[in-house]
Amino acid sequence: MLSLARRPGQKIRIGEDIVLVIREIRGRQVKIGIEAPAEVRVLREEIYEELCAANKAAAEQRSIPAIALLRPPSDDTETSS
User: Cα dist. 36→2, 13, 63, 69 in Å?
Assistant: First the structure.
């Protein structure tokens, strides 16, 4: 992990198109501005973890065995001759 010391108003650039701006420092809290393209998803870590947990729970509830997806739907009616 790279650790950098910055002061309010100073910036950190990530790649070509992401810029972090240190907006304000008060006590133990830092306000950061993030300039990034719209297609770059920016989330707080706790929100990201909640989304991952919700996605995992949803996937477990709707799990269908892979073999069931390969079989044609069963027909309960039997033809007799």
Answer: 20, 10, 36, 40
Would you state the pLDDT for residue 64?
66
Q: Which residues, other chains included, contact 42 with Cβ-Cβ below 8 Å and sequence gap of 6+?
A: 34, 36
Residues with Cβ < 8 Å from 9, sequence gap 6 or more? 21, 22
DSSP state of 75: -
Q: Answer whether 21's CB lies under 8 Å from 36's CB.
A: no
**Is the pTM for the entire model greater than 0.85?**
no
Q: What is the pLDDT of residues 32-64, one digit of tens each?
A: 999 999 999 999 999 999 999 998 888 777 666
List the 11-14 sheet strands across, edge first: 11-14, 18-26, 29-35
Q: What's CA 63's distance to the chain center, in Å?
A: 21
